[in-house]
From TrEMBL, chain A:
One of its GO terms (biological process) is cell division. GO terms for cellular component: chromatin; chromosome, centromeric region; nucleus. It is found in: Chromosome, Centromere; Nucleus. The keyword Phosphoprotein applies. This is Protein yippee-like. It comes from Astyanax mexicanus. Belongs to the yippee family. Transmembrane segments: none annotated.
UniProtKB/TrEMBL annotation, chain B:
InterPro entries: Mis18, Yippee/Mis18/Cereblon. Pfam families: Yippee-Mis18. It comes from Astyanax mexicanus. Its main location: nucleus. It is found in: Chromosome, Centromere; Nucleus. Keywords: Cell cycle, Cell division, Centromere, Chromosome, Metal-binding, Mitosis, Nucleus, Zinc. GO terms for cellular component: chromatin; chromosome, centromeric region; nucleus. Signal peptide: none annotated. Residues 31-129 form the Mis18 domain. One of its GO terms (biological process) is CENP-A containing chromatin assembly. Transmembrane segments: none annotated. This is Mis18 domain-containing protein. Residues 182-205 are annotated as: Disordered. GO terms for molecular function: metal ion binding.
Length: 160, 205
């Protein structure tokens, strides 16, 4: 999965209805032992209102279930009360990594191999070109100022 | 259409910028993933979007996921914005809803859109990364950037500066020849000095 753009973010999808439930840009940590990642909780997730005691660790904490807003299936848990060692999980969305994810840029179906001359410019590339152009424009402004200074300099020298 | 790759972009030079330390990183915070509005299947993402075809309310995409199926049959359109085009219909591989078209043969004004995925905005949802919200694709703009206009403006700026540089060079040359003159005949100097100041003031605008 890491070919091409290694740092491209992943969007996590509900295993049942495929609705997006979060992405790695709102990453808040991970627990490798439990195959779990922590994300910030947002609107796509329904937070359960019945806390129960979690028994996954020696020192239990209080958790609530988190469900998919689309289909209601359970996606993970959220600690509402933690012992010290689990503080890093408190109020985050603990999500199992076995769920489906979509890595940005991994869509690979193309009509035919479009030759490079006919390759359309993606909005992303347009953005990059635009950013570079802003830098060049700023340079042009600086050069303009310098020229103005030289001009004034010459003018005062010729007057004196 | 302005979304064809200009010749200076034909190589992959944009990602091997040797002089600048700033590597062009994609601003993922502003990216989105396109989902089928009916069944939520991932259809494409904004990294492969090239713009918008407004008359058919569609997003122009270079690539889509394998979940998009291209129907085998060629169809012909005789009226509407796609009149006299032949195309194949795209459908969601999971719920079979029609997602848009791929143009196969077209009149001139559509030829730049051949062989690209034209996805109808009204059947798509957008998952906005970092905001973690799902919105209707019709609410999101995929318009192309006015790159051509910006390049022309920049070119004009640089041409004006070149003029200024040439003018300054002229003034300097005149001054140095003036110095030579001054050494020989003193009284004639005033005439060409006034000429060079006139040049300076006309050039500063
Ligand atoms: Zn779901
Ligand atoms: Zn679908």
């Amino acid at each position: 999965e890491e070919d091409g753009d290694g740092d491209a973010p992943a969007v996590f999808l509900c295993g049942k209805c495929r609705r997006p439930v979060g992405d790695s840009l709102s990453w808040a940590g991970s627990d490798e032992q439990l195959n779990q990642i922590m994300l910030k909780v947002h609107d796509n997730i329904v937070i359960g209102n019945e806390p129960y005691v979690s028994s996954t660790r020696k020192e239990p904490g209080l958790v609530v279930n988190l469900a998919c807003r689309g289909c209601g299936s359970t996606l993970g848990i959220m600690y509402t009360s933690t012992p010290k060692e689990l503080d890093f999980k408190r109020s985050y969305f603990c999500f199992g990594v076995e769920n489906i994810e979509y890595v940005l840029g991994s869509a690979d179906q193309q009509v035919a191999v479009v030759d490079s001359k006919d390759m359309p410019v993606t909005l992303e590339l347009q953005e990059i070109v635009e950013q570079q152009m802003i830098k060049i424009k700023a340079l042009a402004v600086t050069i303009g100022h310098r020229l103005m200074e030289i001009e004034l300099d010459l003018q005062t020298k010729s007057e004196s | 259409m302005s979304h064809r790759k200009p010749s200076f972009l034909l190589t992959d030079s944009y990602d091997c910028d040797s002089t600048q330390s700033s590597v062009h990183t994609v601003d993922y915070e502003r990216c989105c993933v396109l989902h089928c509005a009916k069944c939520s299947t991932v259809i494409a993402d904004s990294l492969s979007a090239c713009g918008e075809a407004k008359s058919i309310k569609s997003i122009i995409c270079l690539k889509v996921t394998q979940d998009v199926k291209v129907r085998g049959k060629f169809e012909v359109c005789l009226e509407g914005p796609l009149a006299f085009c032949t195309y194949r219909v795209l459908e969601c591989g999971i719920c079979h809803r029609s997602m848009g078209v791929i143009l196969h043969s077209t009149p001139t004004h559509w030829s730049s859109l051949r062989n690209l995925f034209l996805l109808r905005k009204e059947v798509l949802n957008c998952y906005m990364l970092s905001k973690c919200t799902v919105v209707k694709a019709t609410k999101v703009s995929f318009e192309t950037r006015p790159i051509r206009k910006n390049i022309i403006e920049l070119q004009q700026d640089l041409q004006a500066q070149l003029k200024q540089v040439e003018m300054l060079k002229e003034v300097l040359e005149e001054k140095s020849s003036l110095r030579v003159d001054q050494r020989r005949v003193r009284p004639n100097a005033s005439a060409s000095t006034s000429r060079s100041t006139a040049l300076l003031t006309s050039g500063s605008k």
